[in-house]
């Protein structure tokens, strides 16, 4: 491959990485904790729904670019270095990185198809439990969100944190592999 094509692949790969993993880190460490402090119930559910709607095309475009450029860069590097087996540490690190990326894609699909819709549904009136709230039945207000909302929050938080940690590990493995 020509140096111009290699430089373009690296740039696109890094750009896709920044968009995907940057979004994961910002969402996990800044946006969700801030929204959870400032918004409650339907307002939080609507904010999450809106964020997901806007972020999803960018995330999946980044994942596709990340995969395509990653495959091209890996094939180019392995042929340039003559790496045909697992004897070289670079090959092993890149294999581990790719396994983690596959896990990230599975987690991202789970987040988009299960965790976030479940959280939005639990926070918005149309997704809430049937019947009047407990305080309307004379039981008094319950401390904190109802159990189904707590479960949805925990599911989304765990998935988000797992994605963020995997993304950080992918960046670390890439840095180590490139230093070899």
Question: Can you walk through the features of this model?
Answer:
With 180 residues, the chain is mainly alpha-helical. The protein has one domain. It is built from four helices and no strands. α1 (3-38) runs antiparallel to α2 (41-81). The longest helix has 41 residues, at 41-81. It is elongated, with a radius of gyration of 21 Å. The two termini are 21 Å apart. The model is unreliable at 128-137 (pLDDT under 50).
In short:
The protein is mainly alpha-helical and 180 residues long.
Shape: elongated
Alpha-carbon Rg, integer: 21 Å
Oligomer designation: single chain
Number of strands: 0
The chain-level structural class is mainly alpha
The total number of structural domains is 1
Largest sheet: none
Helix content: over 70%
Question: Unreliable stretches, pLDDT < 50, 5 or more residues?
Answer: 128-137
Integer average pLDDT: 84
| H/E element sequence | HHHH
* Cα separation of the termini: 21 Å
Q: How many individual helices?
A: 4
Residues in β-strands, percent:
under 5%
């Amino acid at each position: 491959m020509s140096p111009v094509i290699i430089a373009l692949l690296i740039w696109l790969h890094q750009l896709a990485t920044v968009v995907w993993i940057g979004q994961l880190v910002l969402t996990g460490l800044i946006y969700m904790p801030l929204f959870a402090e400032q918004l409650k119930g339907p307002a939080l559910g609507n904010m999450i729904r809106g964020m997901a709607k806007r972020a999803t095309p960018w995330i999946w475009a980044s994942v596709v670019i990340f995969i395509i450029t990653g495959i091209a860069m890996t094939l180019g590097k392995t042929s340039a270095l003559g790496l045909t087996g697992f004897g070289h540490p670079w090959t092993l690190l890149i294999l581990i990185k790719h396994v983690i990326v596959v896990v990230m894609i599975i987690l991202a699909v789970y987040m988009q198809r299960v965790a976030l819709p479940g959280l939005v549904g639990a926070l918005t009136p149309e997704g809430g439990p049937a019947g009047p709230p407990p305080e309307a039945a004379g039981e008094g207000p319950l401390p904190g969100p109802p159990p189904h909302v707590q479960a949805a929050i925990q599911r989304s938080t765990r998935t988000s944190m797992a994605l963020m940690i995997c993304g950080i590990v992918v960046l670390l493995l890439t840095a180590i592999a490139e230093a070899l």
